[in-house]
User: Fold this.
Amino acid sequence: MKRRTLLKGSLSAGVAGVAVAAGLLTPQMVMAAWPKAAFDAKGIDGAVSSLLGSSKLASSSDISIKAPPIAENGAVVNIAVSTKLKNVSSISILVEKNAQPLTSSFNLASVTEPFIKTRVKVAKTSSIIAVVKSGGKLFSAKREVKVTIGGCGG
Amino acid sequence: MAKKWKVRAQLKGGVTTLKALITHPMETGLRKNKKTGKKVPPHYIQTLTVEHNGKSVLDADWGPAISANPYLSMKFKGAKKGDSVKISWVDNLGDNDSHTVKVR
Assistant:
């Protein structure tokens, strides 16, 4: 019996420790409120205007999107976005044909290079849109990714 | 349990490149459990931050469309070898985790 109580005691102490660590982490997390409306938006315009305050996008050739032209597995598509634009404060990645186009948005500090690489889900053949906020203006670029589900490269 | 973090921060020519692989299911809430026919509840990372010596260099909002076991790579200036880089996330269920690496 004694051994059992000892075990229980050490377990609850462990849980408390985790809770304290979580408590310490919370304040900084609360500052960044997650933009639910932007992620729930069904269209590019809605998502961008909800997230960045405007849906006026100027197409720019200074943004480069690296993505595979054909993705065999839409659940994991490597996307890299980089740009030559200066004073970049945010980079967002959208997939046009996804039910919820906005996949992610990155706010950059002044020391951060305008470069992001990640992996996103692409439901079906679609354009990948990168939106870059530079000097208060929005710029975008597109790139198409073909998704072949169980097909042979069609 | 699988290792939860694989993170590396490497300094080259004044620019530090951070590469991170996080273990997380990233459920969209749309997938169905084949046996029960019920939807698997959404479970995905919502906010992710990268800090260099306690100062934020990247502050990201993620949706469920980020792939499972997310990978992220980013670059920033101003770090020295041995500086600490902390990466942390919070998901939609309120879970959180963080990991610190040294720049090398």
Summary: Chain B has a mean pLDDT of 92. DSSP finds no helices and seven strands in chain B. The first strand of chain B starts at residue 5 and ends at 12.
